[in-house]
C-alpha cells in the first residue's frame, strides 16, 4: 500500500512520461498483494479523467463512480457468498485505523473524527460547498468511503479455501489517507494543533505499552517452542482476544527455522504462493481444520501426532507452556495437570 500511495503521489504531480516510468512501483506492490495495486490503478484512472474533463462535469463523473460501486456490490451479491456489517459505516471515516488494541483507543478515534469535521467545515467556509464537491481529493475520498460502506467485507471466490476478507478495513486506510490529503490545505488553529498533539502522544504511548506486552509474550513463546525437539508440529491455543488482530502470527514467527506452525492459515487458504498439499504432514491442508484450531474445537487425529500445543499457564496466565497432545483431545482446553509440559 505504501508503494501504491507513492505511485499515486507521483501520478498526481507529474506528466505521463514520469507516470509511465513509475509503473514498476505498482509491479513491485503486485508481488506482495494485487488488491492495493488494483486500487491505485483505479484511483489514477479517476485522477486522469477528472483532470481531463471540465471541472463543472466532475460531479457527473463522481456520480458514475458511485453508480459503479453500487453495481459492483449488486454483482457480488448475486454471484458470490459474502458478508457485510453495519460496522463498515464507521470504517468509512478511516478513523478506525488508530483503534489497534481494544476500546481504549476509541476516544482517540472520536477525537480525530471531530478534528476532521471541524477542518472540513473550515474548508467549506473557505471555498464553498460547490467548489469542495468539485475538487478531485474530495471525490477520491468520497469514492473510497462509499466503497468501504457499500462493498462486502468478505467475499468467497471459488478458487480460494476461505473468503477474501478485511476488504472494508483495507480500504479504510485509503479513505483515511485521502481524507488527510483533502484537508491538508486547510489552516488549523491552536486548539486543533493541541488536539492532534494530544492524540498523537496518547496513541503512540498506548501503542508502545501494548507492543511491549506483546513482545514479552512473543519472547516467551519463542523460548517455549525452542525447548521442543526440532521440526515438530506445533499449534497455539492463545486466544485472538489476548493477542489482538495484528498479532495472530506469533507462533508462525516463533517457529521459523525450528518447528512447523501446523495451523498456519495461509497454505490452506489458497490465496498465497505456497499451497498445502493433501496430507503433507507439515501444515493442515483444509481451512476448516485451521478454523477449528483457532476456535479451540479441533479434535486431534492420530495423523496429526506428534503435535504440541502452546498455551498460557501459571496463576495469572502470564506464562507460556507447551505440551504434547493426544489423539481424541480438543485443542482449546489443555490439561496441564495430566501431561508433561514445559513452561516459561
Describe the structure.
The protein is an alpha/beta fold and about 350 residues long. It has two domains: about 210 residues, no CATH class; about 130 residues, no CATH class. Helix content is about 55%, strand content about 10%. The chain is built from 15 helices and seven strands. The strands form two sheets. The protein has a five-stranded mixed beta sheet, covered by helices on one side. A hairpin with a 5-residue loop joins strand 5 and strand 6. The longest helix has about 35 residues. About 25% of the residues are buried.
Ordered list of secondary-structure elements with their pairings:
Elements: H1 2-13, H2 16-21, H3 24-32, H4 34-52, H5 58-79, E1 81-83, H6 87-91, H7 106-127, H8 129-134, H9 136-150, E2 154-156, H10 167-183, H11 190-225, E3 233-236, H12 240-243, H13 250-254, E4 260-261, H14 265-269, H15 287-295, E5 307-313, E6 319-324, E7 341-343
What class, by secondary structure content? alpha/beta
CA-based shape: globular
User: Mind describing the biggest β-sheet?
Assistant: 5 strands, mixed
Could you name the ranges where pLDDT drops below 50 across 5 or more consecutive residues?
Answer: 335-343
Provide the spatial order of strands within the biggest beta sheet: 4-3-5-6-7
Number of helices: 15
Strand content: 5-15%
Question: How many separate domains?
Answer: 2
DSSP, total strands: 7
Which sequence of SSEs, written as H and E, runs from N to C? HHHHHEHHHHEHHEHHEHHEEE
Radius of gyration over C-alpha positions, nearest whole angstrom? 24 Å
Mean pLDDT score: 90
How far apart are the first and last residues' alpha carbons, in Å?
A: 38 Å
What portion of residues is helical? 55-70%
